[in-house]
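quick one, 191 residues, struct below
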Amino acid sequence: LSLPGSEPPYSRPATSVWRSRDFLACWGLTALFNVAWGVVFPLRNLYFREPWIGLSFQQIGWLGFVRSATMASVPLLFGILSDRSGRRKPWIMGGFLLSSAATALYLVSHTYWQLVGVTFLTAVAFIAYNLNVNALVTTTLHDKARGRQYGQYRVSGSIGYALATFALIPLVARDKTYSATFLSGAGIYLA
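---
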């Protein structure tokens, strides 16, 4: 906050945010992350109901609780740790790597408790990535157009998810073992 009429010393010229290399990197990473998530998430619950997994609806609900509880409790800790480290990129890349590993783990996790662990890992990975990329992107925005530019950035996630839904899910859903789903998701996280 600043006094009306005073220009803060850190203000930047109101040039296009699309000229910022950091903004474009954040935009691309968010789109990519959401392509992978868009491949895995919609088919994951179907995987849980397959006969070789055989989770009940109640167990699937508890997995949702594990994800929600993790998403509610871990961000503050990760925010403090990433602020202390003073670097965002290792957290973002770590989030991508852990997302890839955790997504691949779905293929070998066939019991409820194994899936609880994988669900926890995917939530932790999302927090590591998302918290830090959102903190980084805010440093690339111009003071006079912050809302509009952040809105442009947030659209990237929707574009990624939509791309996965319309282009990739029809292809990977043909594989009844779900290998294509989880391996393509893991591969996209590594891209």
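Residues 1-12 have pLDDT under 50 and may be disordered.
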